[in-house]
Amino acid sequence: MKKNENQVVVTKSGYETLSKELTFLRTTRRQDVANKLEEARSYGDLSENAEYTAAKDEQSKVEGRILELETMLSKIVVIDEDNLDTNRVAIGLTVKLEDIDKPGKMYKYTIVGSEELSGMNLSSDLNRISQKSPVGQAILGHIVGDEVSVKIPKGIRKLKIVSIDRE
Q1: Which of 140, 141, 147 lies closest to 161, judged by CA?
Q2: How far apart are CA 59 and CA 76, in angstroms?
């Protein structure tokens, strides 16, 4: 799939997560912040009201994230993992890697769009990495058996692609 600069590529689960986050922010979080503002206003003088200032800051963050999600979702391209070619590493596929310098040390990652891992609710799934991460960039487009070198903060890690699957 060719991607233009304005497209945001995500997996189906990433799209669902972003959509749920937007719905939550528009309804629950927005109302929570409005309630905090209302309560803070009741304390009187707004110029020296720390609760009001904090609630306004929180409102700004929530509204900013809503705008960010609305913009992102308007440009989204959802990857259909069921139809992905598993011959080459791509967004939406799960890759098993072996650390060449530590034989037997294996890593398993699902490659996702970087937008899936951004925002207020970061994924707690440690087996998902962005296509823009150092490992993600190094392995994209490679095939089983390929060896890649990844520059990480502690130096260079050499990895071998063991398998590419749909999860």
Answers
A1: 147
A2: 25
- pTM of the prediction? 0.72
Q: Kindly state the tokens that stand for 167.
A: 């999860």
What does the H/E/C string look like for the chain? CCCCCCCEEEEHHHHHHHHHHHHHHHHHHHHHHHHHHHHHHCCCCHHHCHHHHHHHHHHHHHHHHHHHHHHHHHCEEEECHHHCCCCCCCCCEEEEEEECCCCCCEEEEEEECHHHHCCCCCCCCCCEEECCCHHHHHHCCCCCCCEEEEEECCEEEEEEEEEEEEC
Tokens of 20: 């749920």
Reported as a single tens digit per residue, the pLDDT across 74-109 is 999 998 878 888 899 999 899 999 999 998 899 999
| Interatomic CA distance for residues 9 and 11, integer angstroms | 7
Beta pairing class for 128-130 and 106-112: parallel
Q: For tokens 């992905």, name the residue.
A: 84
